[in-house]
């Protein structure tokens, strides 16, 4: 553990960008096309994790599969896990991979079941049974195949699916997969984890896009929370970011998908968390 927590800026590691895009991009073909052009333009080692968007819901309606949510979280029953496996791991993932190939980026589409990269545990039933939903532990990831892909210039593209090692696919939060991959790979690379969403970054005033906080450390974060200056909805992302950093990730950046190129540089537009 001491090895992992030493000052990573002193390590001669190659940089790795782990980039997560959400459903708002997946659901917008022109936004996705622009994003993938920018992703393809990034030089060096990179991984993409994508959400599912609303496509599974729309296809489910056509197939007579009703979507059920509790507190905004999808309940993944037997029918739904088949649906999201088909849509996330198939339709969405392979369309992204095909578009990246057309843009000159050699990519491979993956789920957590492929090469046993992301084994997970079915979420235990407490007050709510979420069904086939997976919780991950980054210490159990098998990253050797990923290291081989990246070492050969191939960009892995992950759908938000894992597996329980007993033959079941599990629906798993894409943000969690991204941060857990960042932690698992931080022993091998200097990782910048980038969360792309609809805002320019973490805003001091959520109604004003010009109030982006460019750099955020724990001391400033604690102060802003105490002063109640941050939008509550962004707090889980920031907490997740600091958890990743505490576990060895070099940096986490939260920003607009349209600023992806700049957000892979030191002259970032989003919020750099360190």
From TrEMBL:
InterPro entries: AceGlu_kinase-like_sf (IPR036393), AcgluKinase_fam (IPR004662), ArgB (IPR037528), Asp/Glu/Uridylate_kinase (IPR001048). Its main location: cytoplasm. Coiled coil: none annotated. The record marks 20, 237 as: Transition state stabilizer. One of its GO terms (biological process) is L-arginine biosynthetic process via ornithine. Signal peptide: none annotated. Keywords: Amino-acid biosynthesis, Arginine biosynthesis, ATP-binding, Cytoplasm, Kinase, Nucleotide-binding, Transferase. Residues 16-255 form the Aspartate/glutamate/uridylate kinase domain. It comes from the Bacteria. GO terms for cellular component: cytoplasm. It is found in: Cytoplasm. Its EC number is 2.7.2.8. GO terms for molecular function: acetylglutamate kinase activity; ATP binding. Catalyzes the ATP-dependent phosphorylation of N-acetyl-L-glutamate. Belongs to the acetylglutamate kinase family. ArgB subfamily. NCBIfam families: argB (TIGR00761). This is Acetylglutamate kinase.
């Amino acid at each position: 553990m001491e090895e992992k927590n030493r000052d990573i800026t002193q390590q001669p590691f190659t940089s790795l960008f782990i980039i997560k895009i959400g459903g708002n991009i997946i659901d917008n073909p022109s936004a996705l096309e622009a994003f993938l052009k920018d992703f393809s333009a990034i030089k060096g080692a990179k991984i993409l994790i994508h959400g599912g968007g609303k496509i599974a819901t729309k296809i489910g309606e056509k197939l007579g599969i009703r979507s059920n949510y509790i507190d905004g979280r999808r309940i993944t029953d037997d029918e739904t896990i088949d649906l999201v496996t088909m849509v996330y791991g198939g339709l969405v993932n392979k369309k992204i991979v095909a578009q990246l190939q057309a843009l000159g980026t050699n990519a491979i589409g993956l789920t957590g079941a492929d090469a046993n990269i992301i084994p997970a545990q079915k979420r235990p039933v407490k007050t709510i049974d979420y069904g086939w939903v997976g919780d991950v532990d980054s210490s159990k990831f098998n990253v050797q195949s990923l290291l081989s892909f990246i070492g050969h210039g191939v960009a892995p593209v992950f759908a938000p699916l894992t597996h329980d090692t007993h033959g079941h696919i599990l629906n798993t939060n894409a943000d969690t997969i991204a941060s857990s991959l960042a932690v698992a790979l931080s022993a091998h690379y200097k990782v910048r984890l980038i969360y792309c969403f609809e805002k320019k970054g973490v805003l001091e005033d959520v109604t004003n896009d010009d109030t982006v906080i460019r750099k955020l450390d724990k001391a400033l974060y604690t102060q802003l929370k105490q002063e109640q200056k941050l939008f509550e909805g962004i707090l889980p992302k920031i907490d997740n970011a600091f958890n990743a950093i505490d576990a060895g990730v070099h940096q986490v950046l939260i920003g607009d998908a349209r600023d992806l190129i700049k957000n892979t540089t030191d002259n970032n537009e989003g919020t750099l968390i360190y």
